[in-house]
Specification:
The complex is a heterodimer of chains A (113) and B (115). Chain A is mainly β. With 115 residues, chain B is mainly beta. Chain B is 0% helix and 56% strand. Classes of the chains: A mainly beta (113), B mainly beta (115).
């Protein structure tokens, strides 16, 4: 069964600091990987997705993620955090067998002034 | 404008009430989903419809009854709910549930409180 693990349910960074949110997946076949962001009382918004093209994927709001097959990871990064980046971030995975997304438990990002 | 619209945004209902949540998508997608998001719990998939046919029912109690009259509309009918059913209910859509890689487009959710 497919699964995805997000290390750290809460991450706190200072404004201007590097953001690193971790995601590891389990897979015996090539995955499709997604990062979503959720602001308070809102739905999930797609940040970026990996679909077996370039391993470094650029998304909206300055975020990017790198697919590393050897590490089964798809960590999300942003060079400089803004206060507006404070939100919950979800990693998700699916495979060729269909479009059933499996979500990680989420990471709440807090940005300190 | 996400392309997926959920109404109402907030709903308070008693345990003996009957209410419905509505979801509408304007993206031309063929698959629609209901998710439940409770505090401090992972996202829970409830139902999946692909081309109006229900393809997944994730052991959801019968007090939740989905309806998908066409590929653009999805309803969740609620009756005799329990306080633990209070949560954010999210609707999502995708191009086709049988084809991987599309991802989902989510609505803003309905915040349900059962009193």
């Amino acid at each position: 069964a497919q699964s995805v693990t997000q290390l750290g349910s809460h991450v706190s960074v200072s404004e201007g600091a590097l953001v690193l949110l971790r995601c590891n997946y389990s897979s015996s076949v090539p995955p499709y990987l997604f990062w979503y962001v959720q602001y308070p009382n809102q739905g999930l918004q797609l940040l970026l997705k990996y679909t077996s093209a370039a391993t470094l994927v650029k998304g909206i709001n300055g975020f990017e993620a790198e697919f590393k097959k050897s590490e089964t990871s798809f960590h999300l990064t942003k060079p400089s955090a803004h206060m507006s980046d404070a939100a919950e971030y979800f990693c998700a995975v699916t495979y060729n067998a269909g479009n059933m997304l499996t979500f990680g438990g989420g990471t709440r990002l807090m940005v300190k002034p | 404008e996400t392309g997926v619209t959920q109404t109402p945004r907030h709903l308070v209902m008693g345990m003996t009430n009957k209410k419905s949540l509505k979801c509408e998508q304007h993206l031309g997608h063929n698959a629609m989903y209901w998710y439940k998001q409770s505090a401090k719990k992972p996202l829970e998939l409830m139902f999946v419809y692909n081309f109006k046919e229900q393809t997944e029912n994730n052991s959801v109690p019968s007090r939740f009854s989905p309806e998908c009259p066409n590929s653009s509309h999805l309803f969740l009918h609620l009756h005799t709910l329990q306080p633990e059913d209070s949560a954010l209910y999210l609707c999502a859509s995708s191009q086709d549930h049988t084809i991987a890689g599309y991802g989902y487009t989510f609505g803003s959710g309905t915040r349900l409180t059962v009193v």
